[in-house]
Specification:
It contains three helices and no strands. It is mainly alpha-helical. Helix 2 packs antiparallel against helix 3. The termini are far apart.
C-alpha cells in the first residue's frame, strides 16, 4: 500500500502538463540543430545549445503575446 506524500504531488498539474506540451512542440521546431550534438555524444554542448534555443524561443513567444495584446 502506497502512502501519498503531499510534497511529491505536483501543484497545478494542468499548468505543468501544458508547459511540458508547449516545450515539446518547441523542441520539435529545432531538433535538427541539436542532432549534431546528440550524435557526437556531446552532452555539455547539447545542453548549452538547448538552453540557448529555448531562451530564444521564449523571447519570441513572449514578444508575440505582447504584440497580440496591443492589437
Amino acid at each position: 500500500m502506497r502512502i501519498k506524500n503531499e510534497q511529491t504531488q505536483i501543484p497545478n498539474q494542468k499548468e505543468f502538463i501544458q508547459e511540458l506540451i508547449r516545450k515539446s512542440k518547441m523542441v520539435k521546431n529545432f531538433h535538427k540543430e541539436l542532432e549534431e550534438y546528440r550524435i557526437k555524444g556531446d552532452r555539455e554542448g547539447y545542453v548549452r545549445k538547448f538552453k540557448e534555443l529555448m531562451d530564444k524561443e521564449e523571447r519570441n513567444t513572449k514578444w508575440k503575446k505582447e504584440y497580440q495584446k496591443n492589437d
